[in-house]
Amino acid sequence: MLLKEKSYTLVGDNKQSVNIVRDVINLLPAYFISEHVLGLPLKTPENPHGSALDQEVYLKLKEIYEFIFIDIAEPSTKVAKESTVKGYSQYFQDTVQAHIQSIASEQIPIIGLGASAIHWATQTPYEANKWLKRLLDAGKGKSKEELANDAMALAIALSVEFSQALTHVVDEFLGKPDPKERTWTPNLGGTSENYPPTTDEIHALASDTTDKEATTRLAKIVVKALRTRPPVPGTYRSVSANVAQLNKSKGDRVYLSFTEAGVDPSVWGNDVKPTIPPPQALFAGEIVKLLGPEWLVNAIVPVIKTIFKLRHIKRAPGNSGKLLSFDEKIEGTPVTTYLNYKQEPTFWSSDLTVTFTA
Length: 358
Hints:
The protein contains 14 helices and 9 strands. The protein is of the alpha+beta class.
């Protein structure tokens, strides 16, 4: 749906183009979260009376995620963001609490401060009702505030982490912007599945409806892509007890690099073949903690198949076909920082345009 809606054709060109990150990948979690988790009707051409735009939901959840999980060094910035994030969180929580109250009482709920009358006129998405009912049944004894917090935890983890994971996989499968940078020789047909594959090979696997192993092979390559480029490069943690071998004392802060862990030969060995099922420690992040690595892979593979079924899909020319970024180091470990359309540093990739033949 999003691919069709967001694609466009340039004058004098028979190819179609789409900003696959900004207009598709970043918005997929907003639709899923709204329709399956929070019960928030989105404002679309088919539903003009919805409560929020897809980009609006994505940006609000992104700000909440950043405030909770990413260090903000400047105190004045943190104070300003805290007020904004509290407002966003309250809106989503009011929405979920109203739904939970409605399900619990089987009556029309009292409208929360963050939910509008138009919201209720459009009705709660059916899938969200089913999920929230399961949440209510499983959380006997919890208050509606606690249940709303559980729903919010899932929504926040799903938002930017899923988008970033999917973006990294797509970027890998599109190949290097400069073919001269390619150093691996692909061979998906034998017992050894080398990495990275070519875009044509991914297209063949995505389009294959006869080979029962095609989806499994594609999933293995997705796992490898996430190992080498996890959605979150790392995180800080506080040491809970003295660790003599690391020369760390209780209370010290350490940086855990998921990027390096994914390719550490002491863990994986020198032959880092794609594997299924993915290990629990793979591409660590909040989404994996809540849903597990297999859920993430199983959610990504169908999207990859939809995208790479497109005929002759490739990067758009110039910078529009690249994830603009620069590399830096945190505590001696590599981290990629992206640039938004204003050329400002950001934690999340925001733009990558591809072309394809309809």
